[in-house]
Amino acid sequence: MDEPADLQSNPTARKLWQAFTQLKRGAWHEQSIAGCTLSEVRLLFLIRRGRRAGRHIMKVSDLSKLLHVTSPAVTQLLNSLESRMLVERHMDPTDRRAISVTLTDSGLAVVQQAADAFDASFQGLVEYLGEEQSDQLAELLTKVLRYYNEKAPPMHSTHLSGDHGDHNA
């Protein structure tokens, strides 16, 4: 993505934009764990969280709401996970239209492996940055999230694509 022209006049905004762009391009979020994508791992974590909360069975509709994606998107992830025997789907006996999802023992093992990998990654980041800078980073990221959730002007798809409405140029 090309740098927006408006950032040329503000070096600090430009530096932030470049840092966010580099972070997004980094390979850290494309890594797989036990052959699972991060989206699949996230889904496995949600299923485990439901189990720990006393819901031994999660429905596809529940998972799609928690992930903020459509049920067909969850279904695609589940197809992949089920083909690797990490989850099982069953027809809900109380509602034949609903499908329930449970983790297999292998799925639980992948969740533990992912948890260990995330823990090691963040422990390594804390060691690299030090406690003080790690605390500062956590506080700043929390503020960034709050800004984009509450105060930022909406970013339309035209801003993201680099199309600023100059169709007649």
List keywords for this structure.
10% strand, Arc Repressor Mutant, subunit A, 7 helices, 169 residues, mainly alpha, globular
Structure description:
- 60% of the residues lie in helices and 10% in strands.
- By secondary structure, the chain is mainly alpha-helical.
- The protein has a domain at 38-110: Arc Repressor Mutant, subunit A.
- Strands 1-3-2 form a three-stranded antiparallel β-sheet.
- Helix 2 crosses helix 5 (105-129) and helix 5 (105-129) crosses helix 6.
- The longest helix has 25 residues, at 105-129.
Helix content: 55-70%
Q: Biggest β-sheet, characterized?
A: 3 strands, antiparallel
CATH architecture label of the domain at 38-110: Orthogonal Bundle
CATH topology of the domain at 38-110: Arc Repressor Mutant, subunit A
Uncertain runs are 157-169
Count every beta strand, where a strand is a DSSP E run of 2 or more residues.
Answer: 3
Structural class: mainly alpha
Shape: globular
Strand fraction equals 5-15%
Q: Please state the average pLDDT score.
A: 83
Set down the secondary structure blueprint.
Layout: H1 11-25, H2 38-52, E1 58-59, H3 60-67, H4 71-83, E2 87-92, E3 95-103, H5 105-129, H6 131-151, H7 157-161
Antiparallel strand pairs: 1-3, 2-3
Helix pairs in contact: 2-5, 3-4, 5-6
Compact summary:
The protein has 169 residues and is mainly alpha-helical. It contains 7 helices and 3 strands. It has a 3-stranded antiparallel β-sheet.
